[in-house]
Structures are given as C-alpha cells and as structure tokens.
Amino acid sequence: MNRPFLKTFPNFLSLLLCVALGISFAGGALHAQSTPGTQPARAPFQAVFRLDGGDTTYAFGVNERGELQQIYWGGRIGASDTIAPPKSNPDWASFDSSYNNTPQEYAGWGTGLFHEPALKVTFADGNRDLVLHYVSSFRSDEHSLDIMLKDISRAVSVTLHYRIDPATGILARSATIESHEAKPIMIEQAAAAGFALPPAHYTLSYLSGRWAGEFTLNQEAVRPGQRILESRRGSSGHQINPWFAIGKNDAADIVDEEHGEVWFGALAWSGSWRITVEQDQLDAVRVTGGFNPFDFGYPLKSGEKLETPVFYAGYTHNGMGEASRLLNHFTVSNILPEAPNPRPRPVIYNSWEATEFNVTEAGQESLAEKAAALGIDRFVMDDGWFGQRKTDHAGLGDWYVNKEKFPNGLKPLIDKVHSLNMDFGLWVEPEMVNPDSDLYRKHPEWVLNFPGRPRSEERNQLMLNLARQDVRDYVYGFLDKLLTENQIAFLKWDYNRNWSEPGWDQLPPDEQKKVYVQFTRNLYSILAELRVKHPNVEIESCSGGGGRVDLGILHYTDEVWPSDNTDPLDRLTIQDGFTYAYPVQVMMAWVTDSPHWLNQRSTSMAYRMLVSMQGSLGIGANLNKLSDADLSTIKRLTGAYKQVQKTITQGDLYRLISPTNGSEFSATETVSTDKSQAVFFGFVHSTQEGRTFPRLQLLGLDPGAVYTLSSIEGNTVEGTPVVASGAWWMNHGVNLQLKGDFQGAAFRLEKK
Ligand code: DGJ
Q1: How far is the CA of 575 from the centre of ligand 1 (A)?
Q2: pLDDT tens readout for residues 428-472
Q3: Peptide bond into 166 cis (omega under 30)
Q4: Residue 402 is part of a domain; what is its CATH number?
C-alpha cells in the first residue's frame, strides 16, 4: 500500500525548531535551569530518569526534540542495567506524525496532536498551540522526582510530580500548571498524568454500577479508539469508579487472578473525573486521567497555578489478584488518615434500617442497650435527629438538634451509649439543603444554580455551592460546633444526589467553571481541618451507598459505605468488585433484616453474618424484632470475627472463586502479612445435586509451616486433617460441606 508521504528525514524540522530556540543537543545534564516566564533555557539531550519501587521500574527521558518521553513501565530491571535515552518514533505517514506516535509523559495539545492530550489551553490571543519541552528536574530523594516542562515560546510551565512507593512500586503522579502570560489563559483540559503501553493484546477492567448495584467488575478487549471512563456528576459517582486495570493476555478477554502482567491505577479525585483508555493508530495504548474536561474551564492569571489530582498507578506480573493486593496495601499504608497503621474498624451498629427518620431518645437508647449486648463497639444514629427532619422533605441545612425528638439535646443518648461501653457516631449530610429549611429560606443564593433557571431537586434537596467561601465556612462551622459540644467519635458523612445546574454566579462568567475544582478542594479542606481540630473523630464517606469512593476522599475518611444494598447475595458481587480497587479495611458491611427490603430475598442470619464478616463488620438490623436465636448468632459470630478481624481487613486477599456471572459458588481467603493466620469463606447460591463445592486450594500460606484448621462456622468434609502443612492446604486443598440455598461457611488457619 502506498503511504501518501513518508518522510525521509523526520527529525529535520525538529532540529530546525530547536536551533531556532537555542536548545542544546550537546548536554546530558539533568538540571538545566529555567525561570517560568522566560524563554526555555538550554534543554538537555539524552536525559534518562528512572524510578524503582517494589518489583517495578518506571523510566522516561528527554528525547532529541526536548519532549519528555516514556521509555519503560514494567517489572523491575537490574540496578546496573543501562537505559538508552528515548528517541521519538518516526512519522508513520503524512497523516500520523512523529508527535502523535511518540508516547509523551504529558502531552500538550499542539503540533497536530490527535490523541488525548494531557493539557489543552487557550491563550488570550486565541492561540491554542501548546508544545511542552523539558526544562529542568529536581530529585528530592531516590523515590521522588519533579520535572519542569515549558511551552516552546509561551510562559506556561508544567511541573510533573513523581513519587514511587518503595514497597509496592505504585507511582503517584500529578501536575502543577502555572502561567506567567501577561493575560489570563484558559485551561480546558488538565490531566494528572498520561501512561503508555506498547502495542499488544490488552484487556481493560473497570468497575461500573448504579445506586444499590455498585462495583461490578467488567472486562473487555482494548480496541482502537477511546474507551472513556468518567463521571460528570460532580462526585466520583456510582456509575463508574475512578479505577482501571489493563491486563496483557492472549485473545481471551479475561485477566487471570494470579498470573500475567497487569497495569492498574486509580484517581484520587472526588469530583467529576475522566480516565481515557485509548488504542492509537499504531496499536499503542495510552491511559490519561484527571479532571473531566467536559464543561471544564479553569482560568489562570499571571502567577496563578492549578494543581491536578494525583493519579496512582502500579504494575504486577501476578494477575488481578496481586494488582489489588498491591493497591490495597498501598492505600492502607499510604492514603488512609491513620496510615501506615490504621486500627481495624470498630464494629458498628447503625439504626437507619431499623428506624429510618423516626429517631427518638428512648428508641435509640433501647437499640443501644441491645447493640451493646451483642459486642458492638460503636453506636451510630443515622438521619432524622436534626432540624424539622421527619421525612426527606425537610430539615437538611438546619443542624440543630430536634427538640421534639431529643428534648435535652444529644447528651443523654451519648452518655447512655458511653455507659454501655460503646462510642457514639452521628449522621450528617453537610453539602445539602432542603428548600424547606431555615437555611434555604435565609440563603437561597447558596445553592448551585443558574440564575433565572429552574433548580432541579433530587430527593427533595439541592446542593450547597461548597466552592463559595461563605458556604464552606458555614459547613465547617456547624460541624466544628457539633463536634466541640458533643462527644462524637464518628461522623457518617452522606451525600445523596449529584449535581445539576452547576452555576457560580458570584464570579465573573469566565471564572464560574472553577466550581468543579474549588468545590472538591473545599470539601477536602473542611475534612482536613476537622481532623486536625478533632483528631479522635473518624469519618465515613457515604453517598447513598458507594457514590463517593475514591483515593481522594480516602485520604480524609477512615471508611466508606459501598452500597445501600445490604442483601447478602447481591453484596457478594459488590464486595468482590470493590476489593479490586479498595481495601477491605474501609469496606463497611452491615447485617440487616430478612427478607431484604430491596429484593425481598430471605436468608439465614448465619449467611448474612458471614457475608458481612468478609468486610468491616456492622449490624444494621432492627434489633427489636430479631429472635433470640438470631441475636445469639450475631453475638457468637461477632466475637469470632474480632479474633480474626485484622487478618480479614488488612491481610492479603485472594479471590478463590468469583461470585459473579451467576456463579453458584464463591470463596475468598485472606492471609495475614506475616502468614501466621488465614481466614477463608465459602458460599453457595443454590446447589444442584451431584455438583459439590469445588475443592479450595488455598493461596499465600507459608508452604513449610504447619497450620491448624478450626471452624468459625460450618464444616469441612470428613477426613479433612486438623493439622497440615501450608503446602498441603495450598496443593491438596480443603473440601467444604456446603449444600442448599444461600449457605456459607468460614474457617481459620493458625500457624503452629
Ligand atoms: C443514604 C445512606 O446510604 C443510608 O445509609 C442512610 O444514611 C440514608 N442516606 C439516610 O438518609
């Protein structure tokens, strides 16, 4: 086939450009200096940067044009291996320029770029061409690196921040964009980072869902063009979670749990976000993630900066299972507020499903007494305690204690809870307001809206514009007062709708879209300030279930509520998907009533308990209605859970049998990091006579150690040894006795 015009000397023009700009090709220095706002200084030629952590090496460098080009991302290479400096890929044809074919670390939209740029701007004079070249680097330690890029002529610079975690090899990347142009520039698109993979057959995994059906794992081939994972909702959202994994495999679009190369990542941003997975015209793959460019516009005046969120990304050659273990350990030891050693979550009781809005002092105290008798650590009063809140039609925004329900304030209830040896938690929904509230009557201008346009209500509520300083101060103020005046150990921070009419008319028109950034920044700053002032208070991120779960919010919150759907069978799938991206440590899992209020499924208390014991356990059932037998099952299994909770919530998780796609069986196993304890669970949906539960060959044990098996609930088949080597449990495996509908079993192994 004839190519229209294949250039013989692809670098000639680049060479001319560099000569014109005074860029030297002679050097090798890593620290060519430049001041923002000046012409690019002498850019280095043949610079290579390398970051090593865990089993991973990430390398990139400056190519002959001065662009920052990715060289390698994969298994760790030898310390003495020499990495050649990058050289741009040639033009493929006159339609596919070298600029398009070369994997840049952070590509500006310019020079005829057709694939997803990391940064796109419009200058005051209408120029929209942005070509970023290397200026300088700064290495603060062997795991951290900053690289400054600058446009070839305009005073716009980008500092790329890199940090690799020495334990897991997970890379944290973000960018700071700064303008010193005389007139404001408009940023229309800003990614945290772009990652590149060479041509191969890849399978993309991502998590999708909806309210009451979050975190479903999807896997599909990466095909030519873009696959966009995003939220335009103003928060991370139930629909798609800001996480991805890409496995390299043969033609089958399934990535093995324990084998094969996987690249994965998660965006730390709780506002609208986008991750674009793109197979380009030469089959190379790029992943670009950051602020969602839809309706985005962030002006920078001279001297102003925009910080992007952080995009975390890692690599393993041990399949999806190891990808999630790495990310989950990283989150526990680097992201969570109590990192590196968060304590296992207190076992909570939450009154929502028992009482809904009908909370009273007497009713809550009675539930608290019953909860304490079960071994619960924390009693949480949910929605309904404040303002004129009797249904979801009124009260949000009025954060005073409702005197009809609590005539003497919260103190009597909190004292009662403390006398029962539990701590006290409270539900709030700080960013929302009901039109039927004193707050809205006083400040109708405080909500997100476009003046003169209808204000769309969802669940009878509107969104406060948290980007406004006065709203931010109000929200911080009432929360601080609540926590100062009451002995509250825990806030369940809810958020029950997505954005509509995202106007911010107090600002000039060209600045109003800053709301997408400033809202989330103010949310984070409120959380951060509260944690400093009230260091013993823990916080849960809830958004009608799992609508705001991401590594951004997890920096400020200790746990999340994965779904309002607490049906145990549905939860098996939700929990399975959740654990690909987030640790069990933060995955709250309540046991609620049967038949379930959503899907009317009836299940035994033991089954419900076992499903929730795979996460951070909570009880949300109506304790006034449970039988003595059910109460004693809760008490017994809660006691057993506490003995192994640290292993379950912070150990290495192995998904032995997936519950997805209508599977009649499922199983998980978690091994403590020192391999001294393991806990495994098995579940059946509905068995068919003649089809027994598959033998479970355990994983991750010490093969040479000896482990003792004991039952938490349920039985193994006759003849199963009590004491055997790790090698036995992993190679021979263990057979469970599980038959019937919605049955479960759980066992522990202790190293002798
Ligand atoms: C949605 C949450 O997910 C529920 O657990 C409960 O807190 C309600 N909101 C209260 O309105």
Answers
A1: 19
A2: 999 999 999 999 999 999 999 999 999 999 999 999 999 999 999
A3: no
A4: 3.20.20.70
